[in-house]
Amino acid sequence: MHNSSPAPFASAPAQRSPFPGQPNTLQEICLTQQEDDLFNLFVATTEHIRQTRPDLPPVILRVAGGWVRDKLIGKESEDVDIAIDTMKGEAFAQALKTYMESVGMATISIGTIHLNPDKSKHLETAVAKVNEHTVDFVHLRTETYNEDSRNPEVDFGTPMEDALRRDITINALFYNLHTRQVEDFLGKGIDDLRVGRIRTPLEPYQTFIDDPLRILRVIRFATRFAAAIDQEILEAAGQPDIQDAFLKKITRERVGTEVDKMLKGRDPVRFLSIIDEIGFYNVVFRPPQVEDVVVDSRIAFIRARVVESLLTYEGLHRIVPSIVYPLAAEDRRLLYLTAAVAPFEGLIWTEPSKPTPKNVPPREPKLHPVARLSVSQTLKLTNQDADSASGILTFAPEISRMVLEHSQSKEGLDRTRLGLLVREVAAKPLFAKWAIAVLFSLVREISFLFGHDEAISISGEWNLRLVLARVWGRADI
User: Fold this and answer.
1) Are strands 110-113 and 125-130 parallel, antiparallel or unpaired?
2) Where is the tRNA nucleotidyltransferase/poly(A) polymerase RNA and SrmB- binding domain (predicted)?
3) Is residue 270 situated within a structural domain?
């Protein structure tokens, strides 16, 4: 098992880590005027609580998690989560509303996000829009897990306990609204943010056995920030009992949400590379109906790398001129989604026939492309996603055969056959995505050409000519 620091891709320039801070500057946060006003309002509310309810313990407020991380690396963030030490979120939000009314400020409405473990909501959260900011209020907490569920028992906790329950160290930082200082109770988050390192607050095995969804979150943040993942994390994620816990505890909707974010994100190729490395492909993508089927998960990574390489080539419009370049974000996502389920190309699952009454002829068994089941049932993405990805995989081989036959034929293009194929490809389920199917057929052929070679690069002009000459018989691009 090799270190998962992002190796420079031959098909695209290596990207600089977004963590350039130095020890004397990284701990400083520059607030906007709106943020300063907002935080002053919250602190004033704690003073109002102290004066009107002296029987209550003092209230300390901190911003937690993503806002702190993003501000430290110079990115603006609207994700303001207020962590409260001695009061529940809804109680503080109501106190805030009371204080604002008492000083003649505009009233606010307060909503409650109720418990919803399927969406990672393990306790109620109060939400209010204050001065154009949508703010979540929740108390600092500690969590206790059992072996059957990723949904913990929650209680009030200290800042350290709250930090320890988080997925990775760079998401476990706080910003104290009273001292206006960053607080790193683990003593690791700021350093990890500086160097671009992904670590878990607790020992990785314990972190993942408690909540196996954190494996995908670790990968998502690593790919988002081009950060290196600690080797201990990769080794823990590959343990069979962690994979069993993932299948037992995590809903497919949550898996699909995380996967979709990575397919749309900065580096879907690295995502597929990591899950191949840790042996997690089948856990994430394989439908339960075909659990005994063995597929080569590296196909997904290789196809995705070819997609990345093609999309970085400036002359791509000369290959498939029917596509508008640069590719729309949704088309880019569809290409990576299709690459992700490409190991299931050609696999069909036959649905068991239901019993029929006597004297009634048995119905024809229903046939389902496994790639479609992966998208619709395993990832719980939309039917349109499932139809499109499955349709592209179905038609790509026929497109490749037609192009190859045309390039080698003296008679030229068989327009009748081409018209029939285009009409079939452009019909449901692909509709306007037929051109993406043409592009993916090229991805597929280039993948066969390179095999499992990680050094895929077709960005150079001479290299592209060579590839097209060998794949589609073209040397005139």
Assistant:
1) antiparallel
2) 246-290
3) yes
To 10 degrees, what angle do helices 329-340 and 434-450 make? 50
- Give the C-alpha separation, 193 to 186, whole Å: 13
> 233: helix, coil or strand?
helix
pLDDT digits (tens, 9 = 90+) for 267-294: 999 999 999 999 999 999 999 999 888 8
Print the SS3 string covering 431-475: HHHHHHHHHHHHHHHHHHHHCCCCCCCCCCHHHHHHHHHHHCCCC
Place 407 in a pLDDT band, splitting at 50, 70 and 90: low
Contact 4, 268 (CB under 8 A): no
Residue 186 phi/psi, 5-degree rounding, is -80, -20
CATH code of the domain in which 58 resides: 3.30.460.10
pLDDT digits (tens, 9 = 90+) for 50-89: 999 999 999 999 999 899 999 999 999 888 999 999 899 9
Name 135's bridge partners.
80, 128
The better pLDDT of the pair 477, 142 is held by 142
Over its C-alpha atoms, the chain yields an Rg (Å, rounded) of: 26
Residues forming beta bridges with residue 138, ordered by sequence position: 83
Which residue type does 331 have?
D
Confidence band (pLDDT; 50, 70, 90) for 400?
confident
b/e 29-61 (16+ beta carbons within 10 angstroms → b): beeeeebeebbebbbebbebbeeeeeeeeebbb
Determine the Cα–Cα distance for residues 60 and 455; give it in Å rounded to an integer: 53
Do 464 and 314 touch, CB atoms closer than 8 A? no
pLDDT category of residue 22 using cuts at 50, 70 and 90: very low
Indicate the residue among 162, 195, 228 that finishes a domain.
195
Q: Residue 1 above 70 pLDDT?
A: no
Higher pLDDT, 442 or 470: 442
Q: Are residues 295 and 389 in the same domain?
A: yes
Tokens of 221: 């943040």
CA neighbor of 59 nearest in space, from 87, 83, 79: 87
> How many Å apart are CA 61 and CA 83, to the nearest integer?
6
Residue ranges making up the domain that contains 444: 286-356+363-471
